[in-house]
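thread: overnight batch results

M.L. [08:02]
morning all. the overnight job finished for the chain we discussed friday. pasting input first so we're all looking at the same thing
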Amino acid sequence: MQTGVTVVLGGAASGKSAFAEELTLRHDRRMTYLATSRVLDEEMRKKVADHAARRGAEWSLVEEPMEPGAVLAGLGAGEVVLLDCATMWLSNHLMAGSDLGAAQARLLTSLEATEAAVVVVTNEVGAGIVPDNPLARRFRDAQGRLNIALAAQADRVVQVVAGLPNVLKGALP
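M.L. [08:03]
and the structure it wrote out:
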């Protein structure tokens, strides 16, 4: 089975997380779901519960909203991790006032160093209108830079539109 990094990107509610979960199952390895979201309201609580119910009990869950590198460093070659999602991770850093370039460099270094197979979910946010406020424009630009860097480093990149995968780079396992 192929290892390395697979990036699954798409718009909001495009089916990217469900596709990434199915792709992770193909690895036939011990599975870890690395959650980056912070549950701050009832809407997010429901979304997290829906994702957990869809995954089932065979997944290990690790919640790490800011520094997934430590989790990735602790995983071995017989494992696969689904990092869901890079967009929430970026939002957490943006709202915390982190140095986004340094945080991104740490994430990319940890993805390169891990022995586990990794599937990263991320949102494509650049296809819409130009946001009307500086924070939203900063987020959109940072997300675009992150997606470019993830795709450049990844072995495989898959865009999901309306639940349908479109392989942009590499081949699916």
